[in-house]
Design goal:
It is built from two helices and 13 strands. With 151 residues, it is an alpha+beta fold.
Length: 151
């Protein structure tokens, strides 16, 4: 799991008068699709009226499927509408952690509310355990390191 994942998109440029502008819907769509590939459902909006200008930075905002606010930082890499975006946080693949835990907790049925979540360093995420002496799976994030414990 890397917090350095970046996505590049050639955003459609709109011509408004004599000014070239980034199409905010195209950028938001790229973010939505990119995060969906990582098992996240998000709704994102980006600011309008951004001139196509190399080095320009702006933030798109939105919510994930649990209504948790998200921020995506966008940087224009040229004046032709090419942008890179990076999620403020990292994606925790809950399904992968649960699969590991199930392999080590005999008979455990682990239920998590989501397949993936956006986390920050030192966050935790909890799931319910049934069919085992332990009742709770706690996933701990420390930078790029992910560990779990069952209690």
């Amino acid at each position: 799991m890397s917090s350095m994942t970046r996505y590049t998109l050639l955003a459609l440029i709109l011509f408004t008068g004599c000014t070239k502008q980034i199409d905010p819907d195209k950028v938001a769509d790229s973010i939505t699709k990119g995060l969906a590939e990582k098992k996240l459902t998000v709704k994102v909006s980006c600011p309008s009226g951004r001139p196509a200008k190399a080095g320009d930075k702006f933030a798109c905002t939105g919510t994930d499927d649990a209504k948790t606010p998200i921020t995506v930082n966008v940087t224009q890499t040229d004046d032709k509408g090419t942008v890179e975006w990076k999620l403020d946080g990292q994606i925790l693949d809950v399904e992968t952690v649960v699969a590991d835990a199930k392999g080590k907790l005999t008979g455990a049925d682990i239920a998590c509310a989501r397949k993936a979540v956006i986390v920050k360093p030192h966050d935790t995420y909890e799931c319910e355990i049934k069919g085992a002496p332990q009742k709770k799976l706690t996933i701990k994030v420390d930078g790029d390191n992910v560990a779990w414990e069952a209690n």
